[in-house]
Amino acid sequence: MIRAAYLADAGYEEALAEELRRSGRGIARWHGLLALSPDPPAPAAWALEVWDSPRGIPAPSIKAAADALRAIQRNWSLVPGAHHRRAALIEARLPPVKARPLVFPEPPPASHLGGWALLEPELILASPTKSSPFPGGVVRFVEDREGPPSRAYLKLWEALTRLGRHPQPGERCLDLGASPGGWSWALARLGARVRAVDKAPLDPRVLAMPGVEWVQESAFALSPEPVEWLFSDVICYPARLLALVRRWLPVARNLVCTVKFQGPTDHDIAAEFAAIPGAAVFHGAHNKHELTFARLAL
Ligand SMILES: C[S@@+](CC[C@H](N)C(=O)[O-])C[C@H]1O[C@@H](n2cnc3c(N)ncnc32)[C@H](O)[C@@H]1O
């Protein structure tokens, strides 16, 4: 019996499998990027979304399959993996799910969304609830192709959207590892005051935005001082970031940092980040081989 399903981001199946294995959760089989587990559901940092109530639904015909899903609820998103044509025919009979890109900082859709997959030609796995309100766990945004000097702002937008919180006008933000300035751009656009720290320079257009200053310094040389938000996208070893985070935890109200992995994923250090009281640790659709760590004030 399948009791939970975990949807991996493409290319990060191994990281998810290792995380599940280390926490004692088995994988009965994969369906595309969906890891099907016989063990009870629990959060997984490397999953784009977790299905916490999967059940098998007979699909003797395309119509019967769509009717069975519709009888449970209106909104479903398909995870492909096999029997693509038949799955597409079933999907075509379901109400369309409008996955309109978000205009940051608009909140995620409040409407309820389930996940389904066609495991066998005549067997659906469907979870009426899942951890992400977005199809396939992927949040999409209306992008700004003119303003930001890098695409890293999308990673920050996704993190803040997931966290349901973002800096307010006038709040003080430290942006460590800020160059060329995608995150600083996103923060300044919110009206926050941004202290961008990097040995490399900020894009002049970002530096010219109201409330933005650049400190040409190593992030590790700063003495912790009270700030509303500490952001870090510094490229460094995870252990070095963990030490930095621990120094700033007492004085930064909110922290949002990317934990970057070179080579194999260091699950031990990921667990240390996750063990920080109030921590959220996740791999978003805009993350590379890295996790986002956040600790927000209550
Ligand atoms: C992935 S980039 C940051 C991208 C940035 N968040 C953006 O949105 O444009 C990583 C940055 O970390 C910076 N970095 C590396 N070591 C650093 C250190 N010790 N202190 C501050 N910045 C550092 C690099 O110079 C680089 O600009």
Count the domains. Answer: 2
Coarse shape: elongated
Largest beta sheet: strand ordering = 11-10-9-12-13-15-14
**Estimated helix fraction:** 10-25%
Secondary-structure element series: EHEEEEHEHEEHEHEHEEHEHEE
Characterization of the model:
- By secondary structure, the protein is α/β, with parallel strands linked by helices.
- Helices cover 24% and strands 25% of the residues.
- It contains 8 helices and 15 strands.
- The chain has a 7-stranded mixed beta sheet with strand order 11-10-9-12-13-15-14, with helices on both faces.
- α5 (182-189) links the parallel β9 (172-176) and β10 (193-197).
- The mean pLDDT is 97.
- S-adenosylmethionine is lined by residues 150, 152-153, 176-183, 197-200, 218-220, 233-236.
Write the SSE topology.
Elements: E1 4-8, H1 13-22, E2 29-31, E3 34-37, E4 47-51, E5 55-58, H2 62-72, E6 76-78, H3 84-92, E7 114-120, E8 123-127, H4 153-163, E9 172-176, H5 182-189, E10 193-197, H6 204-207, E11 212-215, E12 227-232, H7 238-248, E13 252-260, H8 267-274, E14 279-282, E15 290-295
Parallel strand pairs: 6-7, 9-10, 9-12, 10-11, 12-13
Antiparallel strand pairs: 1-3, 1-4, 2-3, 5-8, 7-8, 13-15, 14-15
Bound molecules: S-adenosylmethionine (SAM).
Residues 150, 152-153, 176-183, 197-200, 218-220, 233-236 line the site of S-adenosylmethionine.
